[in-house]
Known about the structure:
4 strands; globular; alpha/beta; single chain; 23% helix
Amino acid sequence: VVDPRPACLTSERFPDADLRLGEPEAALARFAGDARTAALVMTHDLGRDRRALAALARVELAYLGVLGPG
């Protein structure tokens, strides 16, 4: 889970997740996926979504999902 908001990025909220504090493009620059990795982008900010997707485009993924505003 990547989030620039420390108050939202807690092990209590995401007990089994790898937590990365920061903007998506910075946090994902060091991210390595594989054929079993799934990623989901949902930031409520179109610009941040685009930057996250650009960072994830360089990663091997089995699945990439995007949830946008409804």
